[in-house]
Amino acid sequence: xxxxxxxxxxxxxxxxxxxxxxxxxxxxxxxxxxxxxxxxxxxxxxxxxxxxxxxxxxxxxxxxxxxxxxxxxxxxxxxxxxxxxxxxxxxxxxxxxxxxxxxxxxxxxxxxxxxxxxxxxxxxxxxxxxxxxxxxxxxxxxxxxxxxxxxxxxxxxxxxxxxxxxxxxxxxxxxx
Length: 176
Hints:
Radius of gyration: 15 Å
Number of helices: 6
């Protein structure tokens, strides 16, 4: 059985190999996604990776793994005690249009991630948006109607969706 934490990697690799991605906004850093973005053979043009994480210890672990790569900034956002900002808040505060790719894979619960997805969808950025764990019905429901195109990678569970607006990225339809 495939590692469920890595099921989105084929999608990220396909995008990195097909598109010129210079900047990524990552909601929830991870051993798989963050390292994929920093792999110069997959994302050769990447100059900036901004990651919002909810777990202080996980942030420290990931910073140790990425070894001070100057392209990445991992910031902790608070979710406990109602202390702002949350990842969803960061989606509202961030200039989403500054990023070529946005990965949503954050939050300790489905409801937390729904808030981040909703915030990104309400802003309907021109970025390519990737949502991990697309099997979760709430994620699909909150995304409905926000993007012109949705392509789902369902070869490995949990599924991963790639969403985008406009017709200038039709090549994305052919990635798998």
